[in-house]
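Quick start: what a row looks like.
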Amino acid sequence: MIWVSWRLQRTETVITAAIIALLAALLVPTGIIMANAYDRDGISACIRANGSDACGGVIRSFTSRFETVAGFTSWFTLVPGLIGVLLAASFVLELESGTYRLAWTQSITRRRWITTKLGTAIAAALVAALAMTLLITWWRAPFVRLEGRMENGAYDFEGTVAAGYALFALGLALAVGAVWRRTVPALVVAFVGYVAARIFVDTWLRQHFVAPISATWRELAGKGGPSGSPPAGLDHAWILNQYPSDRLGHHIDVKLGACFRAAGVHPGKVSCLVERAAVYSHVVYEPASRFWLFQGIETSLFGGIAVVLIGFAAWWTQSRR
């Protein structure tokens, strides 16, 4: 039965392997060039120098050189969804065509047929997600050292979340296909659902996994003392919000032009410049130390929903002819 399942799903598996090979063909050459440039320009030493003007120029030159390619890789977040719905196609095709009845009339039980078909698809999705994660993690290593991996562009390809994304897309396609039993519409709906879920999590839900940290520090020197420094946890953190504030962290609308006009009419209002200047900064952020916590939460979220969807597809298929 395992060999038969592989034979029936080999087209989708070969296409999945071709997608990963295409990603490798795009990323490996530029990854080697980028890694060599990172070492040749001595960016590691610049990071340790922490603030040198010359090093700042070197780092800016490096990021500007490769930022176009890095921006292009953000579209790869669609690949786990594409892989998931693609690997569900074989199962849904058999339901649509009715060929599964032939297997059920032979010595193969319904449970064995369903378990083998779904197990093959799940294994292929996990292997493809792992290969993609390893490839992009290697490619993005220089950028991670510079910028961290909490921002969406890096977070989506690191750790374990890609496996959760692929399984979620697979489960959604299987569940919709088991009920609808029309392959193309079911896969399209599942992929659209995957994209909608990812947008919801990326833009709103993720930042609510754990309560963010807030900090206020003196940005500019003033009457109250010398300028301060940002909190240590801000390095490579995910910045949710940052704005000029007073010492209590209340937002200040900086409109210096209005202050100058007021001072021109009423000299006594020159204190407006001090009151409204951006003396303090307030920031709301998720520190880099929470990366694996967020990965675990998000992988559990997508993976848990995937288990429910796959279980539903198995139950619905077994209970209905």
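That is the whole record. Residues 142 and 277 are 37 Å apart (CA to CA). Residues 213-286 form one domain.
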